[in-house]
Amino acid sequence: MISSSEYGSHSWELLVTVDHQHEEVQKEFLLRVTGDLHIGGVMLKLVEQIKISQDWSDYALWWEQKKCWLLKTHWTLDKCGVQADAKLFFTTQHKMLRLRLPNMKTVRLKVSFSSMVFKAVSDICKILNIRRSEELSLLKQSEDILKKKKKKDKNSKEPVTEDILNLCNSPVSSGLSGSPGFYSKTMTPVYDPVSGTPASSTITWFSDSPLTEQNCSILAFSHPNCSPETLAEMYQPRTLADKAKLNAGWLDSSRSLMEQGILEDDQLLLRFKYYTFFDLNPKYDAVRINQIYEQARWAILLEEIDCTEEEMLIFAALQYHVSKLSLSSEAQDFTCESEVDEVEAALSNLEVTLEGGNASNILEDITDIPKLADNLRLVRPRKLSLKAIKPYWFVFKDTSVSYFKNKESAQGEPIEKLNLKGCEVVPDVNVAAKKFGIKLLIPVADGMNEVYLRCDNENQYAQWMAACVLASKGKTMADSSYHPEVHKILSFLKMKNWTMSSQAVSDPESIDMKPECFVSLRYTKKYKSKQLAARILEAHQNVSQMTLVEAKLRFIQAWQSLPEFGLSYYIVRFKGSKKDDVLGVSYNRLIRIDIATGDPITTWRFSNMKQWNVNWEIRQVAIEFDQNVSIAFTCLSADCKIIHEYIGGYIFLSTRSKDQNETLDEDLFHKLTGGQE
Predict the structure, then answer these.
(1) For residue 554, is it left (φ>0), alpha (ψ between -120 and 50) or beta?
(2) What distances in angstroms separate CA 167 from CA 94, 125, 175, 540, one per listed residue?
(3) Helix (H) or strand (E) holding 234
(4) What is the pLDDT of residues 124-137, one digit of tens each?
């Protein structure tokens, strides 16, 4: 038997602070413990000492000095490394958090501060009824952006009162997983695919969801645009270095909020981090489509992404159309119920699947790789001289373009054969001036070879542009995505091709249009309000027949077709280089960009990547590609873990398929993004 005095020598006192709301009860408790006592035993001892009868199930121990949760309740204090000098904090795992959504609305809800951010975002998306939560993450605004905002707030005379949507009654508040919101896994549409309104019968199915019809309307509808004054007060990146600041604050998906210094009631941004929007379906995704539309809209208004004047007017016309429909009573008529028979819907879906479009062409597609052959003009920029523009006979086959002096000589050797795999394809179009150009940046040993192709008309441009885009990804025109890509390019060109109409300009609605709300500040300064209104209404003629959801989807498509779409910028220093560069991370490639000129220097495709890792001691990312190409760089504008996670995240998202349920392989995500730190 061990005497009590001997036992006492092995035990020690542990100080635990309890986070509770009872003012009359002390908050600090000294527990006498031994190293072999497990964490669950510590919590039991503590609750017995507190003597407050309440539900402690959401409480856990937080180790202040080590910045970590002690969640493995079967581990002993010795195994965790907890000794007498440890300061433990007994607190709730779910806490209030303010989230600024892409539509600039703020919601307040309870979030798990002990789960990994990847899981916390998944729970948040269930509450907000956003499918495919893996595409989103949480962003902490950089100090520079916040300083600018504070400065603006000081200058404004009236205090800014923010309208916060409180969702604190959500199921996650009680520590349960989020409710499915409005999303139904049956074939019954949950939203009207035309207007995006929830079918009112479905509200009653999910009455445990905090999303009432009114809240859903706030998240699924675009609301009146902000004033030009508000726009001017928001942070607008001017340079590539400024754009790099926007991406510096992504939280680590493999660690919890508390571990990353986030406190209760802090504000974070919920944003689409990965620009691969999988399986967008108007029947289920009204909130998701609206939030993607809003993120795209703000990116264009704040010039986070560059576009031409012609494109800006298209975006303005679509925004005007969306805001007009959102404000009209028809769009928000919740009483209209579209009852769809589930069996009938399932049968029609099966019919489409079985038919699979033009079955007669399937064999032909497998055996024959299509090719394009036509007269185009080749433009090569030359230093210290004018551009040389010459007509040639071009042949596009597989993933390469060959050109010949004329059609007759096409049987012989080409003048040059350009392999487009891994190249950058940039549209060079002005519909009004009948200019249809394709800019190709082809990787060569010492950088990028710049070549322009000039087409004669829209149809020729759409076919060749689509072929170039697919070839850059290593796909041929036999790929099923070729014809949809041609159609998408043609529909975008059609939107740009408008003519002046007296009816449009004299439209009475243009009087209270406020065109400054639909374009970036650059164009507000360049044109008078009446001029802008007239030009937006001209462009609006081509989109005026669209439904609300169709207009948002068309806006998203137009945004996706911009050359800079999906690029997240970081300032890096490449191994062996003496100057800083910008690294652009996209869904399928990395681009090294000259920080001074903004010109791409080299492109590396993820499809050619063999492995990537991080040397955590010197914070250096190293990547190996095919053909013995390897690069290494340190990140200067953010933590290198952010870039590492971006690369792994995009590779993880490329593994998704429609056959899968929406259950995600969370372990695979952490394997690809964690970096085994």
Answers:
(1) alpha
(2) 14, 12, 14, 37
(3) none
(4) 999 999 999 999 99
